[in-house]
């Protein structure tokens, strides 16, 4: 199919669609969360977004021990003695256990959808996008991870005349970026650390591609907001924040730098997935220390907000 014709049957994996959001872009928005991310940040508040395939989550405190899941599982992937209940390597994601679990103790993260299915969900709120100056925000995970599906979704949004925003780690190729940017009205992009070695330590990848892509986006003229997830003992030192601000002020299309203080809202999901949460010892930063970092950013002549507000 020619690349400029919408392939409405293209498929991808979505793990959530949130309607009526007033964050993550102007006006009233619907946020589409695509599954899969090349980074592995320990503080990720959506750990179910990291792997590209579906994942079964076990919400232990809801379980009443009825054993129905065990009786229907065709893959021998349920272990009633195991605190995390699911043997992930054996699970084929058939969903049979989720259907019979009336206690709400099992939840499948991720669902395969076509572009047409997503667009029809998005259309439900078209009147709100129009009346509020809102639109659609693509988040993840990392939306570029499913680049072909992502491009088709953006094309579908644009054919409906909707404003599009993306939330990205900035990790993709220049070729893909140049293809996608004409379909995007606003970019939120994370810069997690300016020191390459430390960036690799805390995310699993080098920051070279990320910083280069920030420059490409800035050059394209698409408005951009840079976000720093501020993680105590990882990247919250003054030197790193100043180095980031210094880099960001060289990017012409940046409207603002947002400091996103560390929180633990997604911590319980690590339990549901049977994974360890690595930052148990880290405490959220005080308001005073975040305010000091904000002042440091503003000293570089940049507009700075905390948590995007
Ligand atoms: S079906 Fe649900 S409530 Fe029953 S044992 Fe399985 S997980 Fe627990
Ligand atoms: S999703 Fe299917 S294979 Fe996986 S644990 Fe449930 S019933 Fe078993």
UniProtKB/TrEMBL annotation:
<dbReference type="InterPro" id="IPR058240">
    <property type="entry name" value="rSAM_sf"/>
</dbReference>
<dbReference type="InterPro" id="IPR012839">
    <property type="entry name" value="Organic_radical_activase"/>
</dbReference>
<keyword id="KW-0560">Oxidoreductase</keyword>
<comment type="similarity">
    <text>Belongs to the organic radical-activating enzymes family.</text>
</comment>
<keyword id="KW-0949">S-adenosyl-L-methionine</keyword>
<keyword id="KW-0004">4Fe-4S</keyword>
<dbReference type="GO" id="GO:0051539">
    <property type="term" value="F:4 iron, 4 sulfur cluster binding"/>
</dbReference>
<dbReference type="InterPro" id="IPR017900">
    <property type="entry name" value="4Fe4S_Fe_S_CS"/>
</dbReference>
<keyword id="KW-0408">Iron</keyword>
<dbReference type="InterPro" id="IPR017896">
    <property type="entry name" value="4Fe4S_Fe-S-bd"/>
</dbReference>
<keyword id="KW-0411">Iron-sulfur</keyword>
<feature type="domain" description="4Fe-4S ferredoxin-type">
    <location>
        <begin position="85"/>
        <end position="111"/>
    </location>
</feature>
<dbReference type="InterPro" id="IPR040074">
    <property type="entry name" value="BssD/PflA/YjjW"/>
</dbReference>
<dbReference type="GO" id="GO:0016491">
    <property type="term" value="F:oxidoreductase activity"/>
</dbReference>
<protein>
    <submittedName>
        <fullName>Radical SAM protein</fullName>
    </submittedName>
</protein>
<feature type="domain" description="Radical SAM core">
    <location>
        <begin position="23"/>
        <end position="303"/>
    </location>
</feature>
<feature type="domain" description="4Fe-4S ferredoxin-type">
    <location>
        <begin position="54"/>
        <end position="83"/>
    </location>
</feature>
<dbReference type="InterPro" id="IPR007197">
    <property type="entry name" value="rSAM"/>
</dbReference>
<dbReference type="GO" id="GO:0046872">
    <property type="term" value="F:metal ion binding"/>
</dbReference>
<dbReference type="Pfam" id="PF04055">
    <property type="entry name" value="Radical_SAM"/>
</dbReference>
<dbReference type="Pfam" id="PF00037">
    <property type="entry name" value="Fer4"/>
</dbReference>
<dbReference type="Pfam" id="PF13353">
    <property type="entry name" value="Fer4_12"/>
</dbReference>
<dbReference type="InterPro" id="IPR001989">
    <property type="entry name" value="Radical_activat_CS"/>
</dbReference>
<keyword id="KW-0479">Metal-binding</keyword>
<dbReference type="InterPro" id="IPR034457">
    <property type="entry name" value="Organic_radical-activating"/>
</dbReference>
<dbReference type="InterPro" id="IPR013785">
    <property type="entry name" value="Aldolase_TIM"/>
</dbReference>
């Amino acid at each position: 199919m020619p690349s400029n014709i919408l392939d409405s049957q293209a498929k991808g994996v979505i793990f959530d669609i949130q309607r009526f959001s007033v964050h993550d872009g102007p006006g009233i928005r619907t946020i589409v969360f695509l599954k899969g991310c090349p980074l592995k940040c320990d503080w990720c508040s959506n750990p179910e977004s990291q792997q590209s395939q579906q994942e079964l989550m076990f919400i232990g405190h809801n379980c009443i021990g009825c054993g129905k899941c065990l009786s229907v599982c065709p893959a021998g992937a349920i272990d009633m003695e195991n605190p995390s209940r699911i043997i992930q390597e054996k699970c084929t994601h058939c969903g049979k256990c989720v259907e019979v679990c009336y206690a709400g103790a099992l939840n499948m993260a991720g669902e395969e959808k076509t572009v047409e299915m997503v667009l029809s969900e998005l259309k439900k709120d078209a009147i709100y996008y129009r009346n509020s100056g809102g639109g659609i925000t693509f988040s993840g995970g990392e939306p570029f991870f499913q680049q072909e599906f992502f491009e088709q979704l953006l094309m579908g949004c644009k054919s409906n005349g909707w404003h599009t925003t993306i939330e990205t780690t900035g990790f993709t190729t220049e070729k893909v970026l140049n293809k996608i940017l004409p379909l995007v009205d606003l970019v939120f992009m994370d810069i997690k650390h300016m020191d390459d070695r430390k960036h690799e330590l805390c995310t699993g990848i080098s920051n070279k591609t990320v910083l280069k892509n920030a420059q490409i986006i800035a050059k394209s003229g698409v408005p951009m907001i840079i976000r720093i997830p501020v993680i105590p003992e990882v990247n919250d030192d003054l030197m790193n924040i100043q180095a980031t601000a210094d880099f960001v002020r060289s990017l012409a299309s940046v409207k603002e730098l947002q400091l996103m203080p560390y929180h633990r809202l997604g911590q319980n999901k690590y339990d549901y997935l049977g994974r360890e949460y690595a930052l148990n010892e880290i405490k959220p930063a005080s308001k005073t220390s975040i305010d000091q970092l904000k002042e440091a950013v503003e000293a570089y002549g940049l507009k700075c907000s905390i948590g995007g507000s």
